[in-house]
């Protein structure tokens, strides 16, 4: 007797062929696709009646620069998409790696799932991943004048600039960060009866 997970894996292998890597772990199936095949694969996942992934649940960027404590040597940036099939009641994770670390770029899937619009804007804003074909790729969470991409592993914890209101100029100004870096050491309570009374 095959499980639902095995049925999904088999359906994915039959529909997608040899060009993708399919793996299952912890009750979830992951499909890793090449950037050149990304749009074709996503279209197939939605339109193939044996798969029927009609809903995109989530899309996010990933920075693998410190993955494996520095032992990872693959591409730095990836886009991860989670899809749901209501008709089949199963889910799949799709990962596509950006071929160029200096200019991470993949195709936009907004033509397949309109819900990807803001998710792709967030991945652009936070990681600097570009989505070719996106109609309105601009920042969504940070200020328009913000420098850098805050979810990148090499982005400084305190940032580059800070914003404050200047009462003399009567306007908001940007200036270099003036916060001194400090390390918070949590207080550890070692009483055996703490919180029981």
UniProtKB/TrEMBL annotation:
It is an enzyme of class 7 (translocase). Its main location: membrane. Keywords: Cell membrane, Membrane, NAD, Oxidoreductase, Quinone, Translocase, Transport, Ubiquinone. It is a peripheral membrane protein. It comes from the Bacteria. It is found in: Cell membrane. One of its GO terms (cellular component) is plasma membrane. Its EC number is 7.1.1.-. Signal peptide: none annotated. One of its GO terms (molecular function) is NADH dehydrogenase (quinone) (non-electrogenic) activity. It catalyses: a quinone + NADH + 5 H(+)(in) = a quinol + NAD(+) + 4 H(+)(out). Residues 31-160 form the NADH:ubiquinone oxidoreductase 30kDa subunit domain. NDH-1 is composed of 14 different subunits. Subunits NuoB, C, D, E, F, and G constitute the peripheral sector of the complex. NDH-1 shuttles electrons from NADH, via FMN and iron-sulfur (Fe-S) centers, to quinones in the respiratory chain. The immediate electron acceptor for the enzyme in this species is believed to be ubiquinone. Couples the redox reaction to proton translocation (for every two electrons transferred, four hydrogen ions are translocated across the cytoplasmic membrane), and thus conserves the redox energy in a proton gradient. Belongs to the complex I 30 kDa subunit family. NCBIfam families: NuoC_fam, PRK06074.1-1. This is NADH-quinone oxidoreductase subunit C. It comes from Massilia arenae. The gene is nuoC.
């Amino acid at each position: 007797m095959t499980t639902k997970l095995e049925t999904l894996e088999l359906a994915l292998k039959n529909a997608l062929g040899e060009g993708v890597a399919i793996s299952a772990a912890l009750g979830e199936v992951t499909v890793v696709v090449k950037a050149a095949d990304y749009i074709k694969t996503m279209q197939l996942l939605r339109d193939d009646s044996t798969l029927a992934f009609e809903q995109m649940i989530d899309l996010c960027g990933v920075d693998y620069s410190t993955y494996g404590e520095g032992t990872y040597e693959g591409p730095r940036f990836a886009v991860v998409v989670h899809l749901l099939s209501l008709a089949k009641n199963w889910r799949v994770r799709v990962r596509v790696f950006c071929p160029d670390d200096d200019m991470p770029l993949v195709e936009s899937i907004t033509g397949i799932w309109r819900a990807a619009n803001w998710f792709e804007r967030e991945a652009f804003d936070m990681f600097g991943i570009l989505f070719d074909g996106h109609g309105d790729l601009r920042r969504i969470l940070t200020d328009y004048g913000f420098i850098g991409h805050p979810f990148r592993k090499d982005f400084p914890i305190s940032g580059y600039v800070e914003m404050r209101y200047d009462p003399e100029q009567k306007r908001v100004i940007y200036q270099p960060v003036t916060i001194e870096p400090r390390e918070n050491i949590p207080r550890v309570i070692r009483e055996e009866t703490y919180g029981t009374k």
